[in-house]
């Protein structure tokens, strides 16, 4: 009856670059610092980038909401019965509308309307500071979602850049280490081979 022995995996040694070890080279300690600095920069950079981006987006959307004014307009012509190829994803259609500005100027443009609405029906349009028609501004909840999403994206990008930069530096260190090993082996290798030939 044969028994199989389980081979033990070597235990992973944490923080080996920081421990005293005769085989540890100065480049190993440098690599340890690069790893620490890379992760700190990733964490701090991600938090800062996320915060700054989210605040900037929130401020921009708040300014857009402040500039946009809802204005009552009327349909100049009947809205199409069914959304055609120019129909919108929310089921509305484009229709020609007319509205009067606060200074008395009458303007016309295309606005969203429910399909089949008759001429003379009232619709709300949004105008900018100079009376031009603008898209409806996002609601506060939409603005919060958009600023959070863009902030998180900027944070992930900043973290990825920091970690990727640290990884590139470590790759350069590995190449340098390999060159050093080659140089050392070219000096020691011939002596080693003489000893083994005996």
From TrEMBL:
Domain of life: Bacteria
Record keyword Transmembrane helix present: yes
Record key words, sorted: Membrane, Transmembrane, Transmembrane helix
Parts of the chain that traverse the membrane: 148-169
InterPro entries registered for this protein in UniProt: MT1774/Rv1733c-like (IPR039708)
PANTHER family according to UniProt: MEMBRANE PROTEIN RV1733C-RELATED (PTHR42305:SF1)
Name the record gives this protein: Integral membrane protein
């Amino acid at each position: 009856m044969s028994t199989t022995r389980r081979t033990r995996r070597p235990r992973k040694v944490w923080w080996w670059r920081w421990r005293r070890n005769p085989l540890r080279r100065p480049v190993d300690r440098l690599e340890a610092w690069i790893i620490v600095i890379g992760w700190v920069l990733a964490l701090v950079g991600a938090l800062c980038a996320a915060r700054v981006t989210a605040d900037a987006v929130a401020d921009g959307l708040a300014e857009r909401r402040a500039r946009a004014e809802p204005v009552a307009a009327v349909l100049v012509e009947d809205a199409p019965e069914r959304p055609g190829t120019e129909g919108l994803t929310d089921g509305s259609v484009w229709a020609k509308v007319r509205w009067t500005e606060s200074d008395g100027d009458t303007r016309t443009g295309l606005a969203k309307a429910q399909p089949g609405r008759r001429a003379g029906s009232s619709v709300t349009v949004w105008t900018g500071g100079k009376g031009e028609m603008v898209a409806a501004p996002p609601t506060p909840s939409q603005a919060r979602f958009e600023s959070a999403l863009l902030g998180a994206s900027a944070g992930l990008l900043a973290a990825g850049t920091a970690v990727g930069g640290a990884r590139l530096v470590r790759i350069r260190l590995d190449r340098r280490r390999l060159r050093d090993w080659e140089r050392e082996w070219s000096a020691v290798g011939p002596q080693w081979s003489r000893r083994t030939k005996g």
